[in-house]
Protein: Gti1/Pac2 family-domain-containing protein
Amino acid sequence: METYYGFVSTSEDALALFEACRLGYKQRVPRRLSDAERAAIRSGSIFVWEENESGMKRWTDGRSWSPSRVQGCFLTYHEWEGRRRAQRHPTFHTMHGFNMSMLPASMAGIHGMPSQPIPMGIARYGHFTGGPTKAGSSQVQYGFPKENGMLKKALSIKTNDGKKLHIIAYYSKEDHARRRLLTPTNDPNFPKLVVPPNLYPDMSP
Structure:
């Protein structure tokens, strides 16, 4: 089910993959992955899909990931031990009375913990992120980076005819550092394509 085995480093790499799929040189993912296909995801697995064609608006792989960070035109994630879950928390406007005495005993005395009000979701252990959203609901990440876990890059765009395209790319730190994974633009076996202007208005070739 992989669209391509390698790495996407730049917007040019992403456009090359989108165009190769459009022209039939590479295959987009037509449906959600099965459990066996999820288990087969490896460093270098890259998947391209279109929302209406696949019936997927959101990619699921059964793994836990850190909150996203922006890296160029991509969002990046680190694989984590633990799971993200929604929790109810007071809104920012109702947290002005929060102080250190309200923290669990396990967190008391942690170096660097602020004594001022904290408008964040608080985890009892590990790393935590999050903050008040609608009606005081927060997304809180419980966990810590997984030893030898993978990283994931994601990109979503619209074509000029309204199609919603997505790329998900998995890789390991070691494979990336040692340049073991080729990109579409430096892979001698990848078709050399000229991307039509304005076909992908969110990204300029």
Summary: The mean pLDDT is 78. Residues 4-82+142-178 form one domain.
